[in-house]
Amino acid sequence: MIDTMHYDLSTLWNTCLGEIEQEVTKGNFSTWFKNTTITKEEEGIIYIGVPNEFVREWMVTKYQKVILKTLVNHIDNIRGVEFVISRFTPPTTTTTTDSLFTEKTQLPMQDLYINRDDNLNPRYTFDRFIVGSFNELAYAASQAVVKRPQSAYNPLFIYGESGLGKTHLIQAIGNEIKKAFPEKHVLYTSLEKFMNEFVTSVQNNRQQSFREKFRKIDVLIIDDIQFISGKDGTQNELFHLFNTLYEQGKNIIFSSDKHPNHILGLEDRLKTRFNAGMTIDIQEPDMESRLAIIREKAATLPYPLDNEVLQYISSVATGSIRELEGILNVIAMHSEMRQKPVALSEIKLLIKNSVKPKKMVSFDTVVKLVSGYYNLDERTIYEKTRRKEIVRARQVIMFVLREDFNESYPSIGSKLGGKDHSTVIHSYEKIKSELVHNPSLMKEIEDIRILFK
Amino acid sequence: MKARCTVEKIKQAVSLAERMTGKNLTLPSLHGLLINASGKSLKIRATNLNVGIEIDIPATIEEEGIVLVKGDLLSNVCGNLKDNLELSLTLEADNLTIATLQSKTVLKCLNHDDFPTLPTVEGESFEIKSTVFQEGIRSVYFSAAITEIKPEIASIFIYSEDTNLCFVATDSFRLAEKKLKVKNIPDIPKILIPYKNIADILKVLDNAPENLQLTFTRNQLSLSGNGIYFTTRLIDGAFPQYQLIIPKTETTKVVLMKQELISTLRLSTIFADKFFQVLFSVSPVNKRITIDSKNNDVGSSVSSIDAVVEGEGIEVSFNLKYFLDVFQALSGDSVSISFTAPNKPIVVRSVQDTSFLYLIMPTNR
Fold it and tell me: What is the mean pLDDT of chain B?
């Protein structure tokens, strides 16, 4: 028998349920025992949480004895069983109830009021922004703008690939400024919205009110400015708006997927203006940052993912953070469906399609590309040599074949000059473990993967 | 078991109780109706673990006993008997014989050991007229959210305020509130009845005696009186503090005839877009309101109604469906609509009856 103090109550209950299941009929078990938990144990009384009064009533009349008998077999000093109604939610809906809890303090109708004036989404804050080496500069500049709006970082121009958190960052600036300086008039808009509004104002002959609206803004945030390319009328309007705001020392923040100089069809006078303040790029996150981001996001999942899994995801899901989120969502859905954590091997299968381009690359091509990448003659790979650079290239080939193309160990071995399958396994494991510590190797593998695309 | 009663009584009781059998549950006995013959009555019980009901009907009991039969089966059998006959129930082994002068049916029985007892609610209790309770629910229930994600708004919220019993429902796009005077009510902080159970409650109230005893705890509510005991699960959650969103001020108030408004809105429905969005413009100068609706595929319509207008002119667009819903709960022949700002909710009331309030959120144009 085990001491109650050290016994995990949910494991205890699961064991008991297993035994009770044998004693009652299937229908009875699923009707009455589904969604029950042990909520607490106090002074020898076990409190069992049941979903509603109907179940409680019937448990008391019919099953109290059976439950007590089963519990006594597992723990000492138990005097009785009580039933309480608890808001038990099956694991499938954990996330939704969580979100409900946070929303509870809020009025549901408030969503509709939110940000009619400034379009900002209050969810985007600095607290929720994960900083890594890839975006710390952009983050620091954003912080500076919030703390000293009159600083030199005006306009602030943030650019980077899609899904790296530009929108989050610029909206966070808006939200923080609003918090710090409530009197400031902040406006967030996407370029497309700006353009539509401008076009409508031209159509309805209300340009004056359009200009007035934008010219009284203290902090103007425009997202996805790159879409301005080729829109001459909008460029012209933006140019004048920019000048007016800039002269008055108002803050202007842009985001784009390209450097201003690389936006096609952007007038020079705008290019120079965009470049006048601070132009910062957000890079793709490195392995550690990805890991940190995944950790952060995985913490909200109903089933915790172990380290190995997290590292695997961070090593395969290179590129945008949105993609990472997508992968985690897939995993979350699967674990919810099965109500248990998903194993690494399953995860590999699950996300194979979402991360890797399914493309047929022949064995020879892999050897050719990798040896080419390492500046080696293709034939040397097949030779029986232990020269360091060749061994390395060969191991990388094995790793890539296994990881990306799912070749079997023996077939890899036989094709690479009759190597034993255990040699291949060793090479694969070696590269895999090294990847975690060695960013330059990671970079190499990434470069090689690009070659396959 | 051996018992006799009138067909009329058992027919009524069975058809009401049969609604509440657990049709989709894994436990087969919950598909049944439990008939308990004891003392001077037959007690018919059903539950689907969301609601439960027990109905007493007067009967002559010759031999006491309990039997469980499939609900739909019994209801079909009883439904086809003539009202003015007398009926006898006899249980022999596993067969229940239902006999009248004209017919005799034998039903297979289920094992009644697994059929649960209904929870007895022990909590605050007060007496309420069933018509009042029904009016309160009927006035608001159409506004409740039909979602499983937010159980607290997929329900009707009932609380007390001085001598009023307040009924509220919202799906976060519109809100209905009805306040009714009830004598001697205790302090009721919160009763949240799940929307799913409302249809059953209304049905019970249709068949209920004039006065009902309402008892509630945090998780359970019961209605009882004159042979009926009904109980429903409640939702243990917090209803949003809706008072905060009811506008305190108004800049524009419009009073107009209800029937005229209904027919104008019906016309606008034809031309509403897929979001049922219409534009309401109030013109204090012309003393009229104009309703614009436009659907690019069908056409457009502009209609105006003469109205008494107080305050400034304003334009608000909102979902027509929400507006049309309110008329089922709005008594009297004239309607007042109050506006505060284009992005603030509008308030609809009946001019004659101040107990009801309806709020509609504007749509984003």
Answer: 91
Question: What percentage of residues in chain B have a pLDDT greater than 90?
Answer: 62
Q: What percent of chain A has pLDDT over 90?
A: 2
Question: Which residues of chain A lie closer than 8 angstroms to B120, CB-CB?
Answer: 57
- State the residue for tokens 């943030």: A158
Vertex A156: Cα angle to A151 and A157 (nearest 5): 160
Above 80 in pLDDT, residue B228? yes
Whole-number Å distance between alpha carbons of A193 and A170: 16
- Distance, in Å, from the CA atom of A46 to the CA atom of A79, rounded to the nearest integer, reads 8
Which chain B residues are closer than 8 Å to A27 by Cβ? 26-29, 114
Which chain B residues are within 8 Å of A58, Cβ to Cβ? Answer: 116-117
Q: Do B150 and A108 touch (CB under 8 A)?
A: yes
What 3-state DSSP class applies to B316?
Answer: strand
**Residues A54, B116: C-beta atoms closer than 8 Å:** yes
Q: What is the mean pLDDT of residues B216-232?
A: 92
Is residue B233 over pLDDT 90?
yes
Here the tokens at position A241 are: 């708006």
How many other β-carbons are positioned within 10 Å of the β-carbon of residue A231?
A: 18
Q: Write the CB contacts of B2 (distance below 8 Å, at least 6 apart in sequence).
A: B37, B61, B62, B63, B65, B88, B89, B90, B91
State the virtual CA torsion across A143, A147, A148, A151 in degrees, nearest 10. -10
Decide if B240 and A107 are in contact by the 8 Å CB cutoff: yes
The closest CB to that of B233, out of A53, A62, A109, belongs to A53
Strands (DSSP E) contained in A285-364 are none
Paired with A95 in beta bridges are none
Q: What was the pLDDT predicted at B200?
A: 93
Kindly indicate the confidence band of residue B99, based on its pLDDT and cuts at 50, 70 and 90: very high
Q: Looking at CA atoms only, how far is residue B136 from chain A in angstroms?
A: 23
If we measure between CA atoms, which residue out of B10, B29, B164 comes closest to residue B88?
B10
Backbone angles phi, psi at B121, to 5 degrees: -90, 125
Distance separating alpha carbons of residues B167 and B177, to the nearest angstrom: 6
How many Cβ atoms from other residues are within 10 Å of residue B155's Cβ? Answer: 26
- ipTM of the prediction: 0.80
Count of alpha carbons within 13 angstroms of residue A144, beta-carbon side: 16
- Residue A168, phi then psi, degrees to nearest 5: -55, -50
**Closest residue to A54, CB basis, from B119, B175, B244:** B119
The per-residue pLDDT for range A48-73, each reduced to its tens digit, is 999 888 888 888 888 888 898 888 88
A269 Cα to chain B: minimum distance (Å): 35
> Which of A109, A116, A117, A193 best tests the B interface by mutation, with the highest count of B CBs <10 A?
A109
Residues in chain A with pLDDT < 70? 1-7, 87-117, 152, 302, 318-319, 352-360, 453
Interface touch A52/B49, C-beta < 8 Å: yes
B348 touching A (Cβ < 8 Å): no
Q: Which residues of A touch B230 (CB under 8 A)?
A: none
The DSSP-derived string for A265-292 is T--HHHHHHHHTSEEEEEPPP-HHHHHH
Q: What is the pTM of this model?
A: 0.56
Express each pLDDT in A171-216 by its tens digit: 888 888 888 888 888 888 888 888 888 888 888 888 888 888 888 8
